[in-house]
Design brief:
By secondary structure, the protein is α+β, with helices and mostly antiparallel strands. It contains four helices and 18 strands. A hairpin with a 7-residue loop joins strand 16 and strand 17.
Length: 329
């Protein structure tokens, strides 16, 4: 019977630490097992398979602890491509591999969607697809501004939440002296493009620390980029036109969505488990939080947000000081 992932984890716990001074077994070292009978051959094949799985699992952990995230990601990605891998081991290693690849500064390769696992009684592997569910619902409230633009973020409470994959986000337009869209949710680490589609100069800046930035002045048709490495809301302003303002919301979870004008939202591919749902709204002074168990059955939510935030007394310039709106411009 194949070794379970629990046994592999026990082996991992007993593995030497990178600074323990204990020699690490070679990843391609043949096992000195005698083969005299067909049973011996089957035993040797099973032992070498577990030896491979252990080296990829533990070798990734050792590489990660010494800061070699590319080496860790490479080993764990190879482990996830191994046929007949127990489903619980896939669930354990997948977020580790994605996080290591993100820390290494790259995108994880596409891994097989079906998880192939051996059952104790069958000689042939059975294909088991990883379970996931859709979460949808309705945001209400928001005062006179309505619920549109609310950002919904799910984070696990029964385990670690994987980091979202950094990506390049479609442009935020500066058109008709407005930011379009007015609110945009993006994953942590995203590169956001700002494109000027007005026949005049524009600027984009934010005083929202630690995501504060200033892209300077640029002309019609020009485009600037900014990377957003820290989660949270980012207030967008233009130093030329005081009437312009917009928002980015940077999510540190891969499970996030943005409500439409009627407050409707939907998230796909959410694994089963316990989650905290967090809702941010531009005109609410406080985040709204709610617990959710994702699983078979209905995963519908209705969440009310306040509209109690007052407009600021003045629109700041890049130095944070008060300025007057430029009437007619």
């Amino acid at each position: 019977m194949p070794m379970t992932s629990v046994a592999l984890m026990l082996m991992l716990a007993a593995a030497p630490k990178p600074d323990a001074g204990v020699p690490w077994l070679g990843e391609s070292m043949p096992l000195p097992l005698s083969v005299r009978t067909p049973e011996d051959l089957a035993f040797k094949a099973a032992a070498e398979r577990q030896y491979l799985l252990f080296n990829l699992l533990a070798g990734g952990k050792v590489a990660a602890e010494r800061g070699d995230f590319d080496g860790a990601a490479t080993r764990w990605e190879a482990l996830l491509r191994t046929p007949a891998l127990p489903a619980e081991l896939v669930a354990l290693v997948t977020p580790l591999a994605r996080d290591a690849r993100a820390r290494a500064g790259g995108e994880a390769p596409t891994l097989p969607d079906p998880v192939v696992t051996m059952t104790p009684t069958d000689a042939e592997p059975a294909v088991v697809k990883a379970q996931s569910y859709a979460v949808s619902g309705l945001i209400t409230g928001g005062g006179t501004h309505g619920p549109g633009g609310a950002v919904i973020v799910l984070r696990r409470t029964d385990g670690s939440t994987p980091k979202p994959r950094p990506t390049r986000v479609k442009a935020v337009l500066q058109k008709d002296k407005r930011f379009l869209p007015h609110v945009l949710a993006v994953p942590q680490g995203a590169t956001v493009e700002f494109r000027n589609e007005d026949e005049l100069f524009h600027n984009v800046f934010s005083l929202s620390k630690p995501n504060d930035f200033d892209l300077g002045l640029y002309k019609s048709g020009a485009q600037r980029e900014q990377v957003f490495a820290t989660a949270g809301p980012v207030h967008l302003l233009c130093n030329i036109h005081a009437s312009m303002n917009g928002w980015l919301y940077v999510s540190d979870s891969p499970w996030f969505a943005q409500a439409d004008g009627q407050g409707r939202f939907s998230l796909k591919n959410v694994p089963p488990g316990q989650y905290e749902v967090e809702v941010w709204h531009e005109w609410s002074t406080a985040l709204v939080k709610q617990q959710l168990k994702v699983g078979a059955g209905s995963n519908e939510l209705t969440i009310a947000v306040d509209g109690d935030r007052r407009a600021p007394a003045f629109v700041p310039d890049k130095a944070g000081k008060q300025r007057q709106p430029q009437l007619g411009y």
